[in-house]
Amino acid sequence: MPPDSNKNERYNARAAEARWQKTWDQRGIYATQNSDPRPKYYVLEMFPYPSGRIHMGHVRNYTMGDVVARTKRAQGFAVLHPMGWDAFGMPAENAAIDRKVHPKEWTYDNIAAMKKQLQSMGLSLDWAREIATCDPSYYKHQQKMFLDFLKAGLVERKQSKVNWDPVDHTVLANEQVIDGRGWRSGAEVEQRELTQWFFKISDYSEDLLAALDRLDRWPEKVRLMQKNWIGKSEGLTLRFMLDPNSLTNLSAPNQENELEIFTTRPDTLFGAKFMALSPDHPLSLAAAAKNPKLATFIAECKKMGTAQAEIDTAEKLGFDTGIKAIHPFDPNWKLPVYVANFILMEYGTGAIFGCPAHDQRDLDFVNKYGLGNTPVVCPDGQDPKTFVITTTAYDGDGRMINSRFLDGMSIEEAKEEVAKRLERETRPLPTPPPQAGEGRVGVAQRQVNYRLRDWGISRQRYWGCPIPIIHCEKCGVVGVPEKDLPVTLPEDVSFDRPGNPLDRHPTWKNVTCPTCHGPARRETDTMDTFVDSSWYFIRFTDPWNAKAPTDAKVANAWMPVDQYIGGIEHAILHLLYSRFFTRAMHKTGHVGMDEPFAGLFTQGMVVHETYRSKSGDWVEPANVKIEGMGDARRATLAATGEPIEIGSIEKMSKSKKNTIDPDDIIAAYGADTARWFMLSDSPPERDVIWTEEGVQGAWRFVQRLWRLVGEIADIKAPATRPAVFSEQALVVRKAAHRALNNVSDDIARLRFNRCVAHIYECANALSDAIGAVETAPGPDLAWALRESGDILVALFHPMMPHLAEECWQALGHKTLVATEAWPVVEPDLLVENTITLPVQINGKKRADVTVPREAGETEIKAAVLALDAVKRALDGKSPKKVIVVPQRIVNVVA
RNA sequence: GCGGACGUGGCGGAAUGGUAGACGCAAGGGACUUAAAAUCCCUUGGGAGUAAUCCCGUCCGGGUUCGAGUCCCGGCGUCCGCACCA
Known about the structure:
Elements: H1 13-27, E1 40-45, H2 56-74, E2 78-80, E3 84-85, H3 90-99, H4 103-119, E4 131-132, H5 136-151, E5 155-165, E6 170-172, E7 177-178, E8 181-182, E9 190-199, H6 205-210, H7 220-230, E10 233-242, E11 258-263, E12 274-277, H8 282-289, H9 292-301, H10 308-313, E13 318-327, E14 330-340, E15 351-354, H11 360-369, E16 377-378, E17 399-400, H12 411-424, E18 426-428, E19 440-442, E20 444-449, E21 455-456, E22 458-459, E23 469-472, E24 476-479, H13 501-504, E25 510-512, E26 519-522, E27 526-527, H14 529-532, H15 536-539, H16 552-558, E28 563-567, H17 573-587, E29 600-603, E30 606-613, E31 624-627, E32 634-637, E33 643-651, H18 662-669, H19 671-679, E34 688-689, H20 692-713, H21 727-748, H22 752-772, H23 779-796, H24 801-810, E35 834-841, E36 844-852, H25 857-865, H26 868-874, E37 881-885, E38 889-893
Parallel strand pairs: 1-2, 1-28, 3-4, 12-14, 28-29, 30-34, 35-38
Antiparallel strand pairs: 5-6, 5-9, 7-8, 9-21, 10-11, 10-13, 10-20, 12-15, 13-14, 16-17, 18-19, 22-27, 23-24, 23-26, 25-26, 30-33, 31-32, 32-33, 35-36, 37-38
The chain binds one RNA strand through α7, α10, β21, β22 and α17.
């Protein structure tokens, strides 16, 4: 590129971007004042984990948020658009182990590096509100809220299972368990029970479920996923008597004389073939005490990991305890009681009755143990006499069969009948006697059950927010007094051994009890990092507050977040925890609302082709040379020419080495090009494939816009708006105003790929108009072109802010386009005087008809019937029907 | 296993139940140039036909409708989440 040529100079993104970033920064135009009286708009992207480098997923996510922020700012809102760091978590500890670097140092270095990268993207962020969750000034308030929640009854301690690595003596995350073995040690993982802290999210099950209906700016699929996660089900708890003759081998003398189960299918009670207990069920343990084989079986079950997918896909295994349960409707009907590996203690009562014909898991189980099945629901249209179940359970609708007094009923009627009969029948509660109330209770009780479990927040790790609790032998569990907060992490820790460094720190955990001043020890567990991210969006409203997590007045003014943008992978946990946490903060007086996110958008991933060498190693795209097209596409290693296999398109990941570094792209093409490409083509909720061609296309368009604006800037236009416009000038103005209208609408609905298309169309129209001018445009066309140029620049500003500033300046404006108001559309320019309707004959398009905009149905019909194509198709006959859909289409039924 | 999505040209995709393929990419042809790059113009779902025009076509099989990529039922395929990754 000749740098001396002035007129046709290329847009120099690198120089321009640095310059405009400096200007914005110096003028402080993205700092938001809490005192701003304009209507508020809070746009937030999910804050990143400081892994060290931003990735393309961040570029996509933050560009989308920035488009919304810039647009809303132009539309007159006080926009809050902050950024921070989800800075606690396991990778920092892994780095400490692998690279001997302190988690704190590692984290803050990463933050500094990533902040620089984000700043190079030209995001309109208010960096004055930056927070890092690992900073004591942040987690101090989190500890305060933990104590507030504790006082409010929202926290409890209970037992829960963890993945235990018996070699490393450490707790493993599910992702650290690979094929049932610890990722570092390779040892078989065991389940262990630990006493842990829980937030009582299940207190809000019904509220979290019911409120989903009001989140009308959330994706339907996320609401559905949360609904299923909460998993409300209505059923019965049902007390089966145990056959006393079968209980002789139990440890305790006959404490368990009955077994309580939960079922959502009481209608299938006559199809029951067995009972199944969780390996953790008290009755299982009682039976195992005198039965070594059963004890071994239970121990085997504990070798299974705690992940749900693993439990569900494992082979269904059971062990017959020898205990018999008595059918509630037939004292002579005895059911074998098994301990089974697929029954969860956490759900229902930890025990079920198995009806194999109508539940696949139960069917797999009986087929393995030869217990048989009896269908009790017969689908409509099936003959009950011949209806049999072999390997596939039937869980659909139908009529009751083989079920005595239920026969012929619908499923719903049968459920109701069973409930009614068993509710009426009462029996004394099992021994030992109940502590309160009457001695007799219905054999069955209707019960609403939720799948949602309480939120276990204890982590046996160093790099997390310390749980502000002191354990005293005399006083028990005592909260750290507020004046002693924050409980800070000690910095002199070692990672040379596995396990929690806090637990083996020589002094940190030794404290005096705040109540009795005797010796006591600190809680050494830290909080789940999901706690940190469950309120950061509220902290952003008042991040400087040293006294309290937030100022309710300020938080209530900014909250809820109007538009939250992040990955679909957070659809359930992060969002549900945040909804709970906001409610808990409401209950403890920190804020005045329940729902944190009024609008939610979940964007898709950035994916890329994968490359593999002959030896099976993954190869980075930067080292691959691609030649040829379509099927003839071949890849070679750029350095050696070794052939490379082109693999499937997958999520960018370090392990498959198919990542593209945003830094490289920004250095080569500039941030605007990267931003533009991330918004082009793919709908934002879907995955976008990163391609070299796509980036180059975006880069060419950047240059094209720059040239186009240069041409418009050269046009001399009258200062005042002409009174009349020629047809030519109107075409230009209509194109610009149509684009303005479409882009405004599509940004509001976050349909960025369509915005991109409309901006292309607008640019094409302006290029065409300029190309058609032979000498110099007349004053009306000149004015129209200048007007349209201004509109075009304003429209792409949210997406390519640096280029827009450069263009705005070139067009002679002295202001910043970043602080300009959004252009105002002239509605008259959006309507045409004539409309062209497609004409179908029998549903197939055969012709067009052009009619005046205000033409009525009879007028349109007449015009349609006069068309050659219609006459030909009708062949002299009159049509059966003519359907005129106003403004849309005409269909002639011949 | 359970739950959730998605499936349209060579590719990414567009299409309130109403003209399938907007817009972009790639490709082919042309202009400019000593040449290349850059830029500009034209063509581009498949098939038949000189042409007008016609036939086929939105993963597969059914259905509803004047009309289905879109709605319903049943398959197939791909992807995501599953509670200690964030």
